[in-house]
Amino acid sequence: MTELRNVQADLSRFRARVLVASLAVLVCFLLLAARLVWLQVIKHDELDEQAEANRTAIVPVVPNRGLILDRNGIVLATNYSAYTLEITPPRLAAGLDDTIDELARIVEIQPRDRRRFKKLLEESKGFESLPIRTKLSDEEVARFAAQRFRFPGVDIKARLFRNYPWGELASHVIGYIGRINQAEKKQMEDWPEEDQGNYRGTEYIGKLGVEQSLEKQLHGTTGVEQVETSAGGRAVRKLDSKPATPGDTVMLSIDIKLQKLVEDMYGDRRGALVALDPKSGEVLAFVSKPTFDPNLFVDGIDAENWQALNESIEKPLLNRALRGTYPPGSTYKPFMALAALETRKRSATQVIYDSGTWSYGGHVFRSHGDHGLGAVDMHTSIVKSSNVYYYQLANDMGVDAMHDFMKPLGFGQFTGIDIFGEVRGVLPSQEWKRNYYRRPEQKKWFGGETISLGIGQGYNSFTMLQLAQATATLANNGVKHKPRLVIATQDPMTRDIRPVPAKPPENLGFKPENVAVIRKAMVGVTQGGTSARVFAGAGYLSGGKTGTAQAVTIGQREKYNASKLEEHQRDHALYIAFAPADDPKIAVAAIVENAGFGAASAAPITRRVFDYWLMGQYPSEEDLAAVRKGQAANPVGKPRNAAEVAWPPGAAAAAAAAVAPSLPASAPQAALPVRAAPTRVSLPAR
């Protein structure tokens, strides 16, 4: 029997299916329309911005770092460009070590390059481009370019390098730059957003000296470039740009030729010398020996050189002028004498008897050689350097009175010089001892501790910068200037020179007649006293004071014998001085570590400094050799005309040329020379 279909039911089911399908299609179209509205209308601006970002890239333009000059326009720090071979580890197709091995077949990669790279890799965030080789030659660049397709993640980049053309000369003053480490990056996170933005793309920052202290002025302002990129991320064309502004040129007060003379006279000996203009506080020479080569740090110092510098018993990285603290020895006596006059503890004519020893509480305090000077007034106490006179004076004044007088002179205080890292030293007082020591029995001040303070020993511990400032203040009749190294900056774009104003001086209010007594006695030191042989025949009159400071304590019953002590245990030689005596234009504090008597080692160096600054004289080669060995008093040989002594020095000039033979320096600085390692920059007379 044939089954009849229900046409009406089939038609109803068909219509239902069509309706469902139509609704499904309609929903799909509505969803597509909604999505279209969402993307094209609501999210249009955001997506357009993302598309533009994919098409373009914002690239920071690192500014040229500013130059550093001495007071005569001689360039102390400059820039040059060179090619570097850099690796971005996450983009490597092969292993890092394998890639480096393959690269070494094309360009020379030494073991120290590998070690430096590994150190940088440890300090980086992992996705940075890091140099494996710097300062590639043109031939090396060409060889790698031909093989570049084999090394994804490896590129040649042109970078600007810092150059210190005179090597170790004045390295503690100038400082150096180095790669920004993780600790510094952490500190930068607390900087204002604007300052952080100025360091985008920057890998280097000042680490020491003027490079660190004047970082903001030297760094400049970072620019930006907007470039169109291909799908592979390569730049196609530049769309827009804001140029970088080079850093300011910074002019220092030091005379680099004088600086070199002093460093040459120290030779291989350790010590420090600070020379100031007493009328302005300008630093004329700022010497710390031994020195170091700041060029070692520019690319990232290798492990061997770092170990040699950091672990050396000579401590070449220590800025002895700024951070080395020493007992001042007998150079303290003129200030003690002035304190006695100002506090009325002594008159200039009062006489005491110097028997060669002085006893307190059963302890015998000696003079050098235990030789007494007999009847001694204040003038003689300075000229002949009586210890007994100042033992007794210290006992009469007491530690707190000495502290209160010496503090305004700057002893044991920050001078406020315009570079970082200064230390305070120790100007003792009863309060200082209570705060310094922990155990109750150590906090008490004993009367016997006061006695040795009078001759610059005991707890006294000052920097050469503090001693130089105090000497300059005395030479300037009690008017104290803050020491300063930076005297001017120059805008690289406008070429305008902006003098850096000095801080207002402070008049300490000493009585002129009291200062005159001390200055006259210090002149007596150079005429008939402990440094008379050194200054015999000088074309000017100067005032000075020799000093010998203990490096180690000698027992009460023992006598000092240098030959029985290790070299590092022998006494330090010190000298302070000013000249000309009637109108001082220069004041000096110098120390030669472990060199014995000040008249034998420190005073001869000061004599040549004065001859250079006041007479325009440069020591003969014979005289320089004798001074280096501590075997010269009065100059030997015929002095040379300082203006005729060749500059740049031959060895330093050759080293500078070897570092950057013909590479351009900071080109945007139109007012300045554009050759690498320029010798001198002409600036308007001050």
TrEMBL record:
Residues 61-238 form the Penicillin-binding protein dimerisation domain. GO terms for cellular component: plasma membrane. The active site is at residue 330. InterPro entries: Beta-lactam/transpept, Beta-lactam/transpept-like, PBP_dimer, PBP_dimer_sf, PCN-bd_Tpept, Penicillin-binding_protein_2. Residues 271-610 form the Penicillin-binding protein transpeptidase domain. It is found in: Cell membrane; Membrane. NCBIfam families: pbp2_mrdA. Catalyzes cross-linking of the peptidoglycan cell wall. Belongs to the transpeptidase family. MrdA subfamily. This is Peptidoglycan D,D-transpeptidase MrdA. The gene is pbp2.
